[in-house]
């Protein structure tokens, strides 16, 4: 924390490989890729809650940040989930309609998790942990609620037809009929092609950021490069009630234009931003159409309000790109 208490703290998230069992929901992970480790285990978001605002297909999980508010009884456990449409045609410049952000909160005393903190160092102690699949069937591809079943093996569920088709192409065609019971018994069991890693805090200098080759140059971008160069591996900049680190002079969001919370009417505040280096790490960058972004800034309800009828509340994302 700076000596100037008016300057919000900034925590940096980097990627680190950890054992699969560390992604159990009751260990409250921050993670990138594969399937979400849901916080509130029931009910989960429906397909309609996760549709892309451009093509209406179901978005896939990008990352989640565990960000508890200890001072709030209702938000003792709190996780922000970010989903994105996998269709590159929906990744339009400075357009955030292909991104879905959901916030889930739980009090310390709740029906899913123990009041006592879990053992973060023992795999054995965590094998009988509560799981969202105890309450509902889950999509084999994305980990969301599975409403459709494979007509052949009758064992695997999907949230929508498009995810069933994708999973068929990505391996289920060969596995169908010879699967071992239990493939969907734990959302931590991911496909070999999935990318999954933990987000941890960084407090040290690393090598210079790769693939930050934008042709646009302005004062804001030069400042962005100067700041990022100190910790070039940063994937997340977390600073609740702070300000985004804009990547260019153009298309900066005025905080007065951030919509208020649609549930309680409170203003939304900046919480964290997703950095462009994550595009490179996930292998999303390519020539032509691809999933990419300059920075994605996430704004959440200042009061972190809750709704007993809805455990996953929609929040606001703003994508700023560098355009030629």
UniProtKB/TrEMBL annotation:
Superkingdom: Eukaryota
Transmembrane segments: none
Record protein name field: MYND-type domain-containing protein
InterPro entries on file: PDCD2_C (IPR007320), Znf_MYND (IPR002893)
Cellular component terms (Gene Ontology): cytoplasm; nucleus
Domain MYND-type residues, every copy: 139-176
One Pfam family, short name: PDCD2_C
GO molecular function: zinc ion binding
Gene: 20208895
PROSITE patterns found in the cross-reference section: ZF_MYND_1, ZF_MYND_2
Keywords (A to Z) from UniProt: Metal-binding, Zinc, Zinc-finger
